[in-house]
Amino acid sequence: GTKAPAPALPMAPHLISSPGRPSLTFFV
Q: Which superkingdom does the taxonomy of this entry point to (predicted)?
C-alpha cells in the first residue's frame, strides 16, 4: 500500500511502501 504516485519514486519502493506492506505502486 502507498499514497505516492508510481512515477514519483519508481526506484525507491522502500520509501513509497507502507510499513508491513509491499508497494503495489512500484509495480504499476
A: Eukaryota
